[in-house]
Every structure is written in C-alpha cells, then in structure tokens.
Amino acid sequence: MIEENAADRLDGAPHPRERSLLIGHGEAERGLLEAYRGKRMHHAWLISGPQGIGKATLAYRFARFVLAHPDPRAIPPAVADLAVSPDHPVARRIVAGAHPDLLALRRIAEAGKDKIPQDISVGAMRDIVRFFGSTAGEGGWRICLVDAADELNRSSANALLKLLEEPPPRSLFLIVAHMPGRLLPTIRSRCRTLTLAPLTEDEVVQGLASFDTVKVPVEEARDLARRSEGSLRRALEIAEGGQASFAAAVEAELARLPATDPQALHALGDKLARRDDAMFDLFQRAVTDHIHSTVRAELGAGARRLAPLSEVWEKIDIAAAQVRTFNLERKPFVFQVFGWLAEAGRRRT
C-alpha cells in the first residue's frame, strides 16, 4: 500500500486503484464491457452516485481492463467482466501509480507537505495537456481518471471541458462525480452517464469482510451496513474511528428535521470541538448523504422542491472548506448547517 496523503484515501483501507474486487454494480460493469467490445464506446464516461459506493473502484477497474486489452476485437468471447489478475503487469503498474498511460486527477498533498488542497486546481489540469500531448507510452489508449469532478474549481472545469470538446485520438475520460448536477452542463452533455445505486446492506457486509485491515463481527457489520446508507466508505469510517454513537446521534437529528433540538446540537458541537478531522468528515458526509438521499427520493417532485436542497449543499460545502482552511470553531458550523437544513425543509413544504 502506497503511503500518500490524499482526499480519496481512507486510513487503513486500500486505495480504489489497489482493489481487484468490485462489490456490486454488476450491471454497470457489463454495460462498460459491452460498450468497449461493440461500437458504442464513448470517449468520456461520467460515473455518478453517492460517495463511497465504489465509483472510483469501477473506474480504475475499467481503466485496468482497457489498458490490459488495448484491442477490443481481441477480447475472448468468454470474458464476462472487467477483472484483470492482480499479477498482470498493467495491474501492478497501476497499483504503484506508475502506468504511463493512466493519469489520475485527485486532491493529493504535494510531496513533503501535509495539507490536502481544497480543490483540483487548473495547475493539475496542465498535467492533462502534457499527458495527451505525448504519445501513449505503450502505443494504445491514454486514460484520464478524475476523482472527483465535484472538486474541480471553475478554471479546472473549463480546462477539462476543452479537452472533452476535442478529445485526442484513443483517449478515454473516466469522470467520477458524487453530485453530477453540480457540474457544468456542458461537461455533462459531452459524457455518457453511468449512474450507480447505493450498495445493499448485504453488499456492504460483504465489502467489510473483504478488507484484511478491518475485522468486524457479523452483527456489528450488519449494524454498520444499516447506518451506512449504502456507502462502504462510510461504514469503514464508522468502524475504524469508533464513531458509531456519534453517527447515530447525527442521523437522529437529521431525521428530526425540519425540527431541531438545540441541546442535541450542542452535544454534537462539543464532540466536533476536539478538532477531530475524521469526526468532522463523518459529520459533513452524513449531512451530504442525507441531502443526496432526499434528492434521489424526490427526483420527480420538480425543481421548486429540490432547489432549496441544492442551495444548502453549496453553502455547506463552502462553509466546511472555510472551517478547515481557517481552523474555525466547529460548534457554530453544526448550528449553521442544521439551521440551513431546517429552513430548506420549511421552504419545501
């Protein structure tokens, strides 16, 4: 396991590029395989869905398969999925982050620094220009994987758009997005969208059992799966951080909305006041997952009902970034978040 400080890496768990096992999403995997085998292969795929359900794992799995099988016409008919042996030279180079024809755009700390950038900047996009400006190292495909597009700033999003509008020959863009509706419409329109559903409770339990570094009793795994809302990452965060009681308290207050209990919010704020970054991340993710689940459940309700949730999502994202950047007090953030959510709930009734 490579040691690196990055937003897409969870302590104690393998990075998605290191995962040879895909939990769930069999239909999506078969769709990618059929598209690659046939004549429907699009140059850009937008892989969307809630955070922590396996979007990046599927993206790396597809990239690995394409690089290991550069000629789709030569894929044996018996091949039914995108699995590539971990011992395959392509798989080993991807695990090491050293494949010349795969560029991953992520929020990762610079060498020798601890701070993870708040977004994927236009500086990172210059790497794409250099990457596609050179010949493929192994004479086949060149693949750019963005994890996650939600973290592009305006300049980097526009730079990506230019490449999507005029893709280089034999290029493939795999773009992971937690909330695709927040991306530029012009980026979405140039991608083929593949929407992944949250994992089932059984799949989350299966995923927890697949990690060598996480040993969770079956009953506890079931409880984590129920709390995870289909996100394996969230289940791992709760298991690894001993955060089950805090997660339950956050979920209880989210379920109470649009009503709020100031005493309960004070208790949540006190727990976050310890400057525990993992706890803060869990709080923010629980809130955003709640918003995402509400949006998914009301997709047919119309823009008027959904607009307040989109506005709150944006506010929370900006406020959380400010808390981290300026080391602000976290209890006021808790009250601010629940105040916004309560107001959004009242506006939607």
Automatic annotation (TrEMBL):
One of its GO terms (biological process) is DNA-templated DNA replication. Its EC number is 2.7.7.7. Coiled coil: none annotated. Pfam families: DNA_pol3_delta2 (PF13177). GO terms for molecular function: DNA-directed DNA polymerase activity. One of its GO terms (cellular component) is DNA polymerase III complex. Keywords: Nucleotidyltransferase, Transferase. It is an enzyme of class 2 (transferase). NCBIfam families: PRK07471.1 (NF005677). This is DNA polymerase III subunit delta. It comes from Phreatobacter stygius.
